[in-house]
Amino acid sequence: MPKPILYDYWRSSACYRVRIALNLKKVDYEKREVDLREDEQKSAAYRKLNPQGLVPLLEIDGHRLTQSLAIINYLDLRYPNQPLIPAAAADRAHVVALAMAIACDIHPLNNLRVLKYLKNELGQDQAAVDRWYAHWIAEGLAALEPLAAPQAGSFLFGNAPTGADVCLVPQLYNARRFNVPLEDYPTLLRAEENANKLDGFAAAHPDRQEVPA
Ligand SMILES: N[C@@H](CCC(=O)N[C@@H](CS)C(=O)NCC(=O)O)C(=O)O
Questions:
Q1: Residue 152 class from Cβ within 10 Å (0-12 exposed, 13-18 middle, 19+ buried)?
Q2: Disulfide: which of 1, 48, 149, 201 matches 187 by Cβ 3.0-4.6 Å?
Q3: Is 158 left (phi over 0), alpha (psi -120 to 50) or beta?
């Protein structure tokens, strides 16, 4: 089987999630950069691969997978070392809920195409766009903290990283880029700090990716 190929953009948080999962699972993969600054995700060639015109996309085992959470789920079943989604039904529902609180309820509101639409179609200035961005992150994280805290340990759920941490770390990276205050979220910050001590998380960080000129 050829190596998996990740269609990636260094600063994309959905790609960052998949890079973390691939690293934690110790999957050797290649990357193809899709430059979002150049709108390459909208090109006819890329849309042939992913009609949604979004990254990430993972070619693996003869499949073409889209949607970061679906990819993480695939990787978890395919590579059962270092499980990212617990097996017990209630634990599984909890971890998936934490991941979805980020991936479905925070991230899509702040996606590039949404921000561009606010600015270009709806005529909002950069200050308004920044307020929008910070608002949805703050509202989402304020709910995530009490959702996670009762079952958190050194990570968002217990004492090993799960798919919830895989989604959290990129989201906090985004929050910092937009100067969103984070001091009210001690559970989230603890999980992030512990996650970033692991090679799999650290090596997936945007600053560690080769950025195209
Ligand atoms: N729900 C998708 C979201 C994918 C997504 O929104 N990707 C962003 C980068 S983080 C993207 O490709 N944006 C391009 C655009 O907005 O035009 C997933 O989790 O994979």
A1: buried
A2: 149
A3: left
Per-residue pLDDT of 113-129, as tens digits, reads 999 999 999 999 999 99
C-alpha 189 to ligand 1 mean position (Å):
24
Q: Is 85 exposed, middle or buried (0-12, 13-18, 19+ CB in 10 A)?
A: buried
Closest Cα to atom 5, ligand 1: which residue?
54
Q: Take atom 1 of ligand 1 and give the residue whose Cα is closest.
A: 67
pLDDT, tens only, 145-188: 999 999 999 999 999 999 999 999 999 999 999 899 999 999 99
Task: Tell me the per-residue pLDDT of 79-113, one tens digit each, with 9 for 90 and over.
Answer: 999 999 999 999 999 999 999 999 999 999 999 99
Distance CA 155, CA 142 (A): 17
Q: What share of the chain is helix, strand, coil (3-state, %, to 5)?
A: 60, 10, 35
For residue 16, give the 3-state DSSP assignment: helix
Q: What's the gap in Å between 19 CA and the centre of ligand 1?
A: 14
Tokens of 96: 């998936």
Q: Residue 124 has which token pair?
A: 């909002």
- Is residue 8 within 8 A of residue 55, CB to CB? The reply is yes
**What are the b/e assignments for 100-133, b being 16+ CB within 10 Å?**
ebbbeebbebbeeebbeebeeeeebeeeebeebb
